[in-house]
Amino acid sequence: MQNDKFINVLSLTAVLIVGVAAIAMGLLAIQAGFGTPLLQLASDFLSLDSVHIWWYVTRAAGLMGYLLFWLSTVLGFAVSSKVFDSFLERMFTYDFHEHLSLLSLGFIVLHVLVLLIEKVQPLSLLEILVPFVSTYRPFWTGVGIIAFYLTVLVTVTFYIRSWISMKTFRVIHYLSVAAYFGSLFHSLYAGSDSMLTWIQWIYGGTSLMTVFFMMYWIILLWQRRLEKTP
Amino acid sequence: MNIYRKLLRWWIALTSVVGFVGGWVYIARATEVGTVTYVGNTAVTMPDLEPIPAVEGLAGNPLSVSTVQSFTFSQSASQQSFSPPMRTGGS
């Protein structure tokens, strides 16, 4: 039964990957005109010869980090609210949630490290590590730095869970809500892609879904407490 | 069971990387960064300048008086008579 559920999820992900790969291959074929060497094509596609290459990398990494963190946050609410319990094993959703947190942290670290070397908006190590000292939009950059620290803290607790009490684990985990909204506002107000329509749709859609799952979780918590009180 | 979990983790990681590369490609095309000039360590984005319009009649033809705007410079009387007082700063 449990294996069947895993296989279902695997099939869905496989379909997703194959779909994305098919679209990418199609685009590559169109772009190639069926004659251009593949390396040149990759270079053109990724703008490898551009002086702004690191600027593109850091922005893409930041966006991917945000999306994975959003997915992890929503899944966290879903785990707590037992939303997927009827069709997915709890252990699977928890594992998925934990893995997504770690992946998002990886992309955020890449986003931060590349900011140190790129030249469009150069930031020093101090500006990246200490909140509100950056010369670039100091408040929203600072909010992003704090959100990053909170994300690190929350992710670390997955691995030290056996050493801390369940209550401490939960309390630290509540901070991920602040981390999510911090990263959302950092992306909106410090991100240079916020003026793009599709990015605005992403931020709008993801934040609305998070608020929905959060409200559901709060109402459920409230209901459980009411049921417990005699 | 363990193998499924491992496979799933790989799938998720792979999807994320594909998404990241896709985002990179899209961002590189969605926003064109203007000409960048470096002032010290800081990059300054310069505005795109419109191309200079071609002067009609210049293509293929040598410059003629009729196609080139004439410009005359006339010195005023005050400028002509102006001579700065110069003296040495000897003791």
3D architecture notes:
The complex is a heterodimer of chains A (230) and B (91). In chain A, 79% of the residues lie in helices and 0% in strands. Chain A is mostly helical. Chain A is globular, with a radius of gyration of 20 Å. Chain A starts with a helix and ends with a helix. Chain B has a two-stranded antiparallel ribbon. Classes of the chains: A mainly alpha (230), B mainly alpha (91). Chains A and B meet through helix 1, helix 3 and helix 4 of A and helix 1 and strand 2 of B.
How do the helices and strands line up, and which of them pair or pack?
The complex is a heterodimer of chains A (230) and B (91).
Chain A: H1 2-32, H2 38-46, H3 53-81, H4 90-117, H5 125-129, H6 138-159, H7 166-190, H8 197-228
Chain B: H1 2-30, E1 36-39, E2 42-45, H2 77-81
Antiparallel strand pairs in B: 1-2
**Quaternary assembly:** heterodimer
The number of helices of chain B is: 2
Number of strands of chain A: 0
Strand content of chain B: 5-15%
- Rg over alpha carbons of chain B: 33 Å
Span between termini of chain A: 38 Å
- Mean pLDDT of chain B comes to 65
Q: What is the percentage of strand-forming residues of chain A? A: under 5%
Low-pLDDT parts of chain B are: none
Strand count, sense and barrel status of the largest sheet of chain A are: none
Apparent shape of chain B = elongated
Most extensive interface: A-B, 44 and 31 residues
Offer a concise description of the structure.
Chain A has helices at 2-32, 38-46, 53-81, 90-117, 125-129, 138-159, 166-190, 197-228.
